[in-house]
Amino acid sequence: MASQLPDGLAMPLNGALPSTVSVGSLHKTMSAYVHIPFCRVRCGYCDFNTYTATELRGASQATYVDELKKEIELSIEVLHCADVSIRPLHTVFFGGGTPTLLPVSDLAHAVQALRDSHGIETGAEVTVEANPDTLTEEYVEGLVQAGFTRVSVGMQSAVPHVLSALDRTHNPAAVDRAVTIIQSAGLEASIDLIYGAPGESLSDWRRSLEKAISLNTGHISAYALIVEDGTALARKISSGVMDAPDDDLQAEMYELADELLSKAGFQWYEISNWAKSQQQQSQHNLAYWTNQNWWGYGPGAHSAIGGTRFWNVKHPAAYAGRLAENQSPALSYETPNQEAAMLEHVLLGSRLAAGIPAQGHDPQAISSLIARGLIDGKHATGGRIVLTLSGRLRADEVVRVLLFRSQD
Ligand SMILES: C[S@@+](CC[C@H](N)C(=O)[O-])C[C@H]1O[C@@H](n2cnc3c(N)ncnc32)[C@H](O)[C@@H]1O
Ligand code: SF4
Q1: From the CA of 1, how far away is ligand 1's center (Å)?
Q2: Ligand number nearest to the C-alpha of 50
């Protein structure tokens, strides 16, 4: 969730959706994202919509779950009025911020509110993001009782100087402990890593990958560090205190990740995501990438229903204020035209190992991408555009060629 909200048309105060959404929703699954916008401290690289205690401007963690419950009730009314049938949630994801800063009973109440309103499919993936130093056995037992099935742990690195360059507060041993607690409770654990932090060498990155692999989880995400405008990291880089990430080194780091993870039994299924089996792939993220329906609850959260996108007011105080007045927290909406929808389909779909259908794309563009080693020839013969390892490193270029036939 980027820190700036896009422009769009003003949403009516009751949150009513355009009538087109019911037709657009017919063949889509429904998911819920629940944003928890609180962090103890802000990591220097992060521009997510999250707030430390001093930034809350009167909003309160204590009343937050009640606000979420109100938005959940309102979403059912809005869907009902738009003739979108209410169907059990295919996936649920609590992200942040730091969801595990809230008492586990609050998370449980929010899950229950989703169950009571939408319903949740039997066996659905229900994930919560957790910072490693926020989990105890008791807390994780509470997550199990609440119905969570999966915990995504923000490990980022196993190397102290890299964690410190990222302003992470946990020490590396906290990750071992957190994963052990999660797995002993019978939940799936997933690990998030970041590569390319200032001062991180290829051998530091190898150490983090080896450590993450040794934790024996079924899922690992590895993200290239992005220097977001307005962050403390961006300021340190522009003032020369820290070095900017090096593109060539980040590419080598990606290749190393793919090599070590593949050897350890993981398979890439999206450019930044690897899983040991299909069931262990993030079903929630796949719902985003395959353009299903989802409702994003909480400040700044984005939703997609039947091809229409809408997003909530950004600050938790504004969010609380709207709900206290019985107004929708949704600020704006847009319905992308066919061209924009196609662009998004290619942008997101081409990042998946399943790829996108070759049909409809210029055969010459496809041949030139095969010749340059960026898409896989065998899959293309079978009618799918699937990136090769080099293609994964130059995915934006592949998309440009497919859509505009332009080459750098
Ligand atoms: C926003 S965090 C929320 C979860 C939790 N608070 C944590 O930090 O672990 C979700 C993930 O986004 C990734 N992330 C956030 N900012 C990033 C950036 N600037 N570059 C790359 N990855 C980033 C991190 O890997 C992080 O685990
Ligand atoms: S803990 Fe997670 S959400 Fe919070 S500032 Fe750090 S990366 Fe961002």
Answers
A1: 10
A2: 2
Q: For residue 231, how far is its CA from the centre of ligand 1 (angstroms)? A: 13
Task: Tell me which amino acid residue 108 is.
Answer: A
Residue minimizing CA distance to atom 8 of ligand 2: 46
Check pocket membership of 227 for ligand 1, CB cut-off 6 A. no
Instruction: Supply the residue whose CA is at minimum distance from atom 6 of ligand 2.
Output: 43
Measuring from atom 19 of ligand 1, which residue has the nearest CA? 226
Q: Is the CB of 98 under 6 A from ligand 1?
A: yes
Domain boundaries, the chain: 9-289, 337-408
154 Cβ below 6 A of ligand 2 = yes
pLDDT at residue number 406: 53
∠ Cα 268 124 82 (to 5°): 105
The residue nearest atom 2 of ligand 2, judged by CA position, is 97
CATH number at 9-289: 3.80.30.20
CB of residue 48 inside a 6 A radius of ligand 2: yes
Kindly give the distance from the C-alpha atom of residue 80 to the centroid of ligand 2, in angstroms, as a whole number: 35
pLDDT score, position 1: 41
Q: What is the pLDDT of residues 75-90, one digit of tens each?
A: 999 999 999 999 999 9
User: What pLDDT score was predicted for residue 215?
Assistant: 98
List, for the chain, all residue ranges whose pLDDT scores fall below the cut of 70: 1-4, 406-408
Atom of ligand 2 nearest to the CA of 42: 5
- Residue 6: per-residue pLDDT: 77
